[in-house]
Every structure is written in C-alpha cells, then in structure tokens.
Amino acid sequence: MKAMMSLDGLLDLINNFSLSASNKRWLAERLIEEAREEESKPTHLSASKFYGVWKDEDYPEASADELAQEIRASRKFREDITMF
Fold this sequence. Notes:
- The protein is mainly α.
- The chain has three helices and no strands.
C-alpha cells in the first residue's frame, strides 16, 4: 500500500524522531547528495540505449512521432545489402 505524504508532513515526521543535530546533518547531506546525482544525469537519452525496451516514464515529454524519429535516427544500416 502506497501512502501519499506532503513534504511538510514528512518534515513533521522526521522532527518527531528527536534526531540529534549530527543525525539531521547526516540525513540532509544524503538527500543533497542524491539530488545532485539526479540533477547530473543527462536530460536527453538516446533511444538506442534502450534497445527497444523502455517505459513511457523514460520519455514523458516525447510524442509517439518523436520516439519513432529518435529510433530511426539511432539505427545504422549497411548500404551494400541487396534485396532478392
């Protein structure tokens, strides 16, 4: 079961734990570290990295046409192939 909680509610919950100043600092540093890692991730991912497997969440702003265009652009074809 997933619960929805506001950030204010989360802060109230953390404050109810009666953490020491060093524990609060440790928690804050970990949150900042994770936020920096998330922010440093590239904003544009090439569809070729997914090899045809991805979720809608991976490209929330992309339309189906944009995804198709990205897939076509990532393909590499040999020009010397002859059809029978």
